[in-house]
Amino acid sequence: MRFSVLASGSTGNAIYVATDRVSVLIDVGITGKQAEAALQTIGVNPADLSAILVTHEHVDHIKGVGVMARRYGLPIYANAKTWGELDGQIGTIKEEQRRLFAVGDKQELEDLGIESFGISHDAAEPMGFCFYHGAKKLSVATDLGYVSDKIKETIRGADAYVFESNHDVELLRMSQYPWSIKRRILSDVGHLSNESAGDALLDCLGGNAERVYLAHLSKENNMIDLARLTVKNILEEKGLVVGDDVQLRDTYPDRPTKLEVL
User: Fold this and answer.
1) I need a surface site. Which of 30, 50, 172, 193 has the fewest CB within 10 A?
2) Where is the signal peptide, in residue numbers (predicted)?
């Protein structure tokens, strides 16, 4: 299994996951042109894509979904409530390209197993995904107000995680955001702080050199170095050695991560 975080942050999110037989995008929250450029940067021809999976309907996750689906004839997988929101935002999608993927469902696309799970966020019915290929597992969990025990149980045991580390609480509190926005971000249907990300990861990691991609960082209320340092300190306080027991990786809003092989 191969993957790359094509873009991650408040300005747009997209992830590429592939085997030798199938390749999918999880969200296209950047323009179609940006998605194509990111794919080409990691050596992938957009014409070889197989499908798009949608986590939820917020614009930073669906901006380019319609364009990419129409341009390359891709099926779009989303749950029924999300489809109810997508229809007014992504343009006309042919009936044969509309696929249902319910929360808690498991499906197989060729040799790629996919499991969805519900998450806590202020969208119609948001979800994350786990991907399976052979003995390898990739867990994708962003846009989380909090991480429930059920989510931890579902994503645990992965070889790699794409995991939200959205904001530093103090930077958010001191920011110029209106209090209503701060309250939303800090709520159980908002976004996960650096501290909460580190605490949740402690319950998921086994110290088996798992790769953790800290994702969906706020442009205004976080910094890459701060997110990495905060999570690193929390993990190492509990005895996990970063760089040995676990690998922390950065993600970027404007460029893809290196194409990784699991």
Assistant:
1) 50
2) none
pLDDT digits (tens, 9 = 90+) for 173-211: 999 999 999 999 999 999 999 999 999 999 999 999 999
CB 18, CB 46: distance < 8 Å: no
Spatial CA neighbour of 83 closest among 67, 103, 68: 103
CA distance 19 to 51: 13
- Closest among 41, 51, 49 to 258, alpha carbons compared: 41
Q: What is the CATH T-level fold of the domain 2-261, as seen in this structure?
A: Metallo-beta-lactamase; Chain A (3.60.15)
The domain locations on the chain are: 2-261
pLDDT value for 148? 97
Q: Among candidates 123, 122, 33, 139, which has minimal Cα distance to 78?
A: 123
